[in-house]
């Protein structure tokens, strides 16, 4: 069983190498990527069943024991994240393949796209199973380097401008992360997370606080937590639809994952719950207010993405087992729903030729199937019962009420308001884009459309509409089915999330897994 | 823990200069700033590794307690390699960005004081570009997804 863990990173990397060599053979590349990601899905499913029944699997890479070598730790949280990420990457790959077949190489130049995509996958999986702070840094760098390339695919003016912002912000956060690792090494003499967790407790409280905040700042930039979220809505929407979908679904969640690890494994004694709650509050409210002002659906979704990170930070700040379980469920929900919505928006763009709600109309008539796909995703994100967005939020609010401080009640109110405002923004999209007849778009005026701003790169007009290939529809429909499955299987999934959260109740679970015979 | 004051001063200067340069508008300076800050961080890792010592891991040459700590050196090497790769990518990005700025007045990366430059006068300083201008523009247009997008305000009719 232990052989599977390194394979999760190794397979995508080997696949990337193979895809690079096969650059001239498009079909072979698609085959390599699909087979690789399918293999990771299967392997991580097997691993998930094993880890859930037998406990974490820990590998000392290269045979060096834990404090000296690199450890890979596959516990419940790591493996479920790998599985969900692999499923998303596979779904989006099918979507991108459909798009590539329909449009040729323009949007997603296949020879570069596939190797980079697989390196991104390897970086993601590596970040999830890293048992070592520096390995986490390497995982982050792998996925970020790949994301730089994917974001600037085809090198058009708009993408270069968006890419520059994104890259400089990411570089800054990487440097902060590296500096934080240096401080932690200086203070504890190790970068193995389990050992850091043990040794950090002996440090003075203020040193612990500084180390914790140094790490959290770096992760908050990556997770797009207010006030470090300004870069996200400007950079994500310009990328090709499949790339935006993957970025929106997965990249910020790696940051959230790292924040969970920092807060529950590394620095258990540092009490920063109240500042975290304030940040969560601001992220929720300011993010969603940004979304309300957007005319472009992709930008609107990017702002809701920022906003909903606030729910996860709220859950982490409460810190009880129920709150963490709800957070984990919410992360899974949000990864799948955001990815799906961005894919559905990609389809809308193909049918309507633009993503601005000022210029779209008659979508329900033009393409009922795409409309249904968008509608289910939108209702889910808006938190309408019985969808998973509702269940996750109820879990969070429940944990907040149990905590019972005034601040947590404020956050529950803000969370509910954010949920309603998300619904408002998405229902407005529905009314304008899907229900409004195509003939009404010209000269339409409504208070709903007042004071909306277009994206900075928006030049008006529409591009030529394109056909929607069956493969893209199938991929999106599959993802929508997955979001519905989150509701259908909410019971078992929530139980699983509770068991995952229980691992963090006592940080020794993690430490014992890495050092079965006790530290030193 | 003892650390060399020279290294600490050097690190502080690199951080200060690097951050200042990163705040400039020009992308090339931002890149230089990033490289300085990256090297300052590498120095930070070296500083936290404690006093210098003899070569580690090789056994039998010196006592264990005089060896330098090898782990930070490994971390630094990895960080240097990563920074190197990213620097190469950002250079390519800067070149592309400059290229796009040459082609139209849409480029954000051209600083304001250059607004009096006409396209001809800018091109005149780059002879190879000037000589082969039409051919290069054609290649560039072909490689672009929306060649029309570069001309501001023109509606796309593809």
From TrEMBL, chain A:
Membrane topology: Multi-pass membrane protein
Repeat among keywords: no
UniProt xrefs under InterPro entries: CPA3_Na-H_Antiporter_D (IPR050586), NADH_UbQ_OxRdtase (IPR003918), ND/Mrp_TM (IPR001750)
Pfam families: Proton_antipo_M (PF00361)
Top-rank taxon, per record: Bacteria
Transmembrane segments: 29-49, 77-96, 116-136, 175-197, 209-232, 274-293, 300-322, 328-348, 369-387, 407-427, 471-494
Primary location: membrane
Gene Ontology biological process terms in this record: ATP synthesis coupled electron transport
The family this protein is said to belong to: Belongs to the CPA3 antiporters (TC 2.A.63) subunit D family.
Any one GO molecular-function label of the UniProt entry: NADH dehydrogenase (ubiquinone) activity
Keywords from the UniProt entry: Cell membrane, Membrane, Transmembrane, Transmembrane helix
Subcellular location: Cell membrane; Membrane
PANTHER family attached to this UniProt entry: NA(+)_H(+) ANTIPORTER SUBUNIT D1, NADH DEHYDROGENASE
Name listed for the protein in its UniProt record: Na+/H+ antiporter subunit D
Native source species: Mycetocola manganoxydans
Keyword Transport applies: no
Gene Ontology, cellular component aspect: plasma membrane
Annotated NADH:quinone oxidoreductase/Mrp antiporter transmembrane domain residues: 130-420
TrEMBL record, chain B:
UniProt entry tagged with the keyword Membrane: yes
Bilayer disposition of the protein: Multi-pass membrane protein
One Pfam family of this chain: Oxidored_q2
UniProt feature, compositional bias: Basic and acidic residues: 134-158
This protein's record includes keyword Cell membrane: yes
Annotated stretches, region: Disordered: 106-158
Residues spanning the membrane: 6-23, 30-51, 71-95
Keywords of this entry: Cell membrane, Membrane, Transmembrane, Transmembrane helix
Location relative to the cell: Cell membrane
Domain of life per record: Bacteria
One Gene Ontology cellular component annotation held by this UniProt entry: plasma membrane
Main location: membrane
Family of the protein in this entry: Belongs to the CPA3 antiporters (TC 2.A.63) subunit C family.
Protein name (Swiss-Prot/TrEMBL): Na(+)/H(+) antiporter subunit C
